[in-house]
Structure formats: C-alpha cells, structure tokens
Write a structure and sequence with these properties.
The structure is a single chain. This protein is an alpha/beta fold and about 180 residues long. The chain has one domain: 3-Layer(aba) Sandwich (Rossmann fold), CATH 3.40.50. The chain has three helices and seven strands, in the order H-E-E-H-E-H-E-E-E-E. A seven-stranded mixed β-sheet has the order 1-2-3-5-4-7-6, sandwiched between helices. Helix 2 packs parallel to helix 3.
Amino acid sequence: MPNPPNPKHNIHHSSQRQDWATPTDIYEDLNQRYGPFTLDAAASAENAKCARYWTEADDALTKPWTGRTFCNPPYQYCAKFVERAIDEARNGNAEIVVLLVPARTDTRWFREAWEHADEVRFLSGRIAFEGASGPAPFPSSAIVLRRPATWASAHERVTYTMPTRHGTRPRWFIVSGGSS
C-alpha cells in the first residue's frame, strides 16, 4: 500500500482502523441498483461482499477490476483507489465501479472522481459501519463510474429525499448526468 496521507490532515481520519465492513443494507441497496457486483475490490475474508474479492495482501491497486466492481476502500487511500477506479472504467476493464467513500468534496481526489463520474450519490445521514460503536463522524457518498465514463454536466440534476424525522434510516440523494 502507498504511504498514508500527511499527518497534518489526521482530523479527517478518526480511526486507526481501515477495515470497517460495509453495512449489509447499504451494500444491498447499491447492489440492487448497480449490480449484481462480481468483485469487491477492497475486502478481507471476514467482510467481503462478493465471492471474488481483493484483500490488502492482494493489493487491489495492482490487480484487474473487471465486471461490476464494488469498493469500500481504506479511507486513508481514497485518492489511489479513485485513480484506479477511473482507470479501470475509462479503459473498459470494469463495466461499472461503485466506490463507497467519505463525501469529502473539498479534496482533490473527490473532485477528480466527480469529474469522471456518471453519478454521485450522497447519503443524508451517517453510516454505522459493521462492528463500529456508532455512526461514522463524516458523511458518505457513492461514486458511480461506468465504461466509458459519461459525465453530462450541462444536464445536471439533483434529487433529494429528506428523512421524515431525526434518527430515521439515512437516504440517498443523487447528482447525476443526463437530461431532466
């Protein structure tokens, strides 16, 4: 794995742990919309969501991403995983890549992903990752890249579903390309 980010940015990383499992309901929602996923590009034997998966030892940044790929990367390496996802979608290796990442719209890697994305989905609440004692201290997003990536910024639209009350299940809102 590459070197971790600059320590002055540690406020963005509230956990030393980088292997939080994606909650089943979040994964199933994304799998229903964009799957069935055939590869989990950042997993372990304990938290893999697909029969085919890359572990830290496999080093997903050097392996091919093919078919329909889901990836909840170690968040300290988001930039590298975004770069790999863009390359795999752009080169036509992966039919679709869905990255579950923090909604850090102020970062260079997020802007790069945004520029290549077909769709960006924002979660209105905070994800409680499997095994965590509470919800994440940051909002989350799903970045959807298809081959070939086709971002149509001239036709942006935003849809949003507000939870009916505080504490309800978080819902997605979407910024996507295409005509209204």
